[in-house]
Design goal:
With about 130 residues, the chain is of the alpha+beta class. The chain contains one helix and nine strands, in the order H-E-E-E-E-E-E-E-E-E. The radius of gyration is 25 Å and the shape is elongated.
Protein backbone atom coordinates (compact mmCIF):
# COMPACT_ATOMS: atom_id res chain seq x y z
CA UNK A 1 0.00 0.00 0.00
CA UNK A 2 2.85 2.36 0.83
CA UNK A 3 4.43 1.72 -2.57
CA UNK A 4 1.18 2.57 -4.37
CA UNK A 5 0.75 5.82 -2.46
CA UNK A 6 4.36 6.87 -3.06
CA UNK A 7 4.02 6.00 -6.76
CA UNK A 8 0.85 8.13 -7.01
CA UNK A 9 2.57 11.04 -5.25
CA UNK A 10 5.57 10.76 -7.59
CA UNK A 11 3.27 10.62 -10.63
CA UNK A 12 1.39 13.68 -9.39
CA UNK A 13 4.66 15.58 -8.84
CA UNK A 14 5.95 14.72 -12.32
CA UNK A 15 2.67 15.86 -13.89
CA UNK A 16 2.44 19.20 -12.04
CA UNK A 17 6.06 20.41 -12.15
CA UNK A 18 5.90 21.62 -15.81
CA UNK A 19 2.74 23.61 -15.04
CA UNK A 20 4.32 25.22 -12.01
CA UNK A 21 7.44 26.15 -13.96
CA UNK A 22 5.48 27.86 -16.74
CA UNK A 23 3.22 29.61 -14.24
CA UNK A 24 6.17 31.12 -12.40
CA UNK A 25 7.77 32.29 -15.66
CA UNK A 26 4.54 34.03 -16.64
CA UNK A 27 4.27 35.61 -13.22
CA UNK A 28 7.84 36.90 -13.37
CA UNK A 29 7.23 38.35 -16.86
CA UNK A 30 4.11 40.18 -15.68
CA UNK A 31 5.99 41.44 -12.62
CA UNK A 32 8.73 42.77 -14.89
CA UNK A 33 6.22 44.64 -17.04
CA UNK A 34 4.56 46.05 -13.92
CA UNK A 35 7.95 47.25 -12.70
CA UNK A 36 8.47 49.42 -15.80
CA UNK A 37 8.27 53.15 -15.20
CA UNK A 38 5.97 55.57 -17.00
CA UNK A 39 7.38 57.93 -19.64
CA UNK A 40 8.17 61.44 -18.38
CA UNK A 41 5.24 63.14 -20.15
CA UNK A 42 3.86 66.65 -19.74
CA UNK A 43 1.08 67.77 -22.08
CA UNK A 44 -1.36 70.65 -22.36
CA UNK A 45 -3.72 72.19 -24.84
CA UNK A 46 -4.71 75.79 -25.42
CA UNK A 47 -6.38 78.20 -27.79
CA UNK A 48 -4.19 80.56 -29.77
CA UNK A 49 -5.45 83.94 -28.58
CA UNK A 50 -9.17 84.17 -29.41
CA UNK A 51 -8.71 82.83 -32.94
CA UNK A 52 -10.70 79.61 -32.41
CA UNK A 53 -7.53 77.66 -33.35
CA UNK A 54 -6.08 75.17 -30.88
CA UNK A 55 -2.75 73.47 -30.23
CA UNK A 56 -1.53 70.52 -28.21
CA UNK A 57 1.98 70.86 -26.85
CA UNK A 58 4.20 69.11 -24.40
CA UNK A 59 7.39 67.25 -23.73
CA UNK A 60 8.44 63.60 -23.47
CA UNK A 61 12.02 63.61 -22.20
CA UNK A 62 12.18 59.80 -22.27
CA UNK A 63 11.11 59.52 -25.95
CA UNK A 64 13.20 62.02 -27.95
CA UNK A 65 13.23 62.16 -31.76
CA UNK A 66 10.42 59.61 -32.11
CA UNK A 67 6.76 59.66 -33.09
CA UNK A 68 3.95 59.84 -30.57
CA UNK A 69 0.24 59.42 -31.29
CA UNK A 70 -2.54 61.97 -30.76
CA UNK A 71 -5.96 60.38 -30.30
CA UNK A 72 -9.42 61.95 -30.48
CA UNK A 73 -12.78 61.04 -28.94
CA UNK A 74 -15.95 62.55 -30.41
CA UNK A 75 -19.01 62.75 -28.14
CA UNK A 76 -17.69 60.01 -25.84
CA UNK A 77 -17.65 57.28 -28.52
CA UNK A 78 -14.15 55.88 -27.90
CA UNK A 79 -10.60 56.93 -28.65
CA UNK A 80 -9.45 56.83 -32.29
CA UNK A 81 -6.20 57.70 -34.06
CA UNK A 82 -5.99 61.39 -35.02
CA UNK A 83 -2.36 62.02 -36.05
CA UNK A 84 1.29 61.22 -35.38
CA UNK A 85 3.68 63.90 -34.15
CA UNK A 86 7.47 63.69 -33.93
CA UNK A 87 9.20 64.85 -30.78
CA UNK A 88 12.30 67.05 -30.99
CA UNK A 89 15.73 65.47 -30.80
CA UNK A 90 17.07 67.82 -28.14
CA UNK A 91 14.30 68.09 -25.55
CA UNK A 92 11.58 65.69 -26.68
CA UNK A 93 9.16 68.60 -27.17
CA UNK A 94 6.21 68.52 -29.54
CA UNK A 95 3.55 70.94 -30.77
CA UNK A 96 0.69 70.28 -33.18
CA UNK A 97 -2.47 71.90 -34.40
CA UNK A 98 -5.76 70.29 -33.35
CA UNK A 99 -9.14 71.07 -34.81
CA UNK A 100 -12.72 70.78 -33.74
CA UNK A 101 -15.36 69.73 -36.22
CA UNK A 102 -18.00 71.86 -37.90
CA UNK A 103 -21.12 70.38 -36.27
CA UNK A 104 -22.59 72.41 -33.41
CA UNK A 105 -22.73 70.86 -29.95
CA UNK A 106 -20.12 68.15 -30.57
CA UNK A 107 -17.47 67.54 -27.92
CA UNK A 108 -13.95 66.67 -29.13
CA UNK A 109 -11.47 65.36 -26.56
CA UNK A 110 -7.77 64.77 -27.24
CA UNK A 111 -5.00 62.78 -25.59
CA UNK A 112 -1.38 61.90 -26.34
CA UNK A 113 -0.16 58.29 -26.29
CA UNK A 114 3.54 57.42 -25.95
CA UNK A 115 4.26 53.79 -26.95
CA UNK A 116 5.93 51.30 -24.61
CA UNK A 117 9.66 50.64 -24.86
CA UNK A 118 12.03 48.19 -23.19
CA UNK A 119 12.37 50.49 -20.16
CA UNK A 120 9.03 52.33 -20.09
CA UNK A 121 5.41 51.27 -20.29
CA UNK A 122 2.66 52.81 -22.44
CA UNK A 123 1.86 56.28 -21.13
CA UNK A 124 -1.08 58.56 -21.90
CA UNK A 125 -1.72 62.20 -21.11
CA UNK A 126 -4.93 64.21 -21.48
CA UNK A 127 -4.77 67.33 -23.67
CA UNK A 128 -8.31 68.59 -23.13
CA UNK A 129 -11.72 68.93 -24.77
CA UNK A 130 -13.29 71.37 -27.24
CA UNK A 131 -17.05 71.87 -27.53
CA UNK A 132 -18.31 73.47 -30.73
CA UNK A 133 -21.04 76.12 -30.67
Amino acid sequence: MTRIISALVALFMVATVPFLATGSATASESAASAAKARHDLTVSGKEIGTSNRFIAKGKVTTYKNRKIIVQRKINGKGWKFYKKVKTSASKGAFRTKITAGKRRGDKYCYRVTVPATARYKLTRGQVGCITTF
